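To: structure subgroup
Subject: Chain for Friday's discussion

All,

I'm putting the inputs and outputs inline so they're searchable in the archive.
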Amino acid sequence: MKISMHPLARLGFLSLLLAIPAGSAFAQANIGKAIIDKLSAKVAKLESACANDIEKYCTTVTPGEGRMIYCMQAHEDKVSPQCAFELEESASSIQDLTESLKDAVLACKAEIAGVCGKTVPGEGRIAACLMANRSTVSKGCEESIQKVESLAK
């Protein structure tokens, strides 16, 4: 089964998303933790589905910085159908999540600059500020927040 390189390349964002530190803010604790848990479950399923392929083709690769993905890309014509399916599913889920997060940042740009302008970014503080001021955000921002929340479920 042929795996397109584009979906595999999207998996490189996974390490960035999993590196989000768990903060104590309400929004981070709820939405961020749920997203991280969901992504972690995907990674575990992916590792299980591709374990034999990784062992067969990529044992000499040092994990990190996308090297394992590049190795799997180099052997994309040889991986098992189960691994190829999980790679595609994971890439699709990650793409949906990253697009929703990007859309939320764009839709909430005015609120982030305005009402949350003095909030120090990181550890979910901006998300917590948006959630705390949810009643005052624009309709587009609210819809984007709801979309991110639905992906976290």
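Points worth raising on Friday:
Residues 98 and 143 are 16 Å apart (CA to CA).
The chain has one domain: 5-152.

D.
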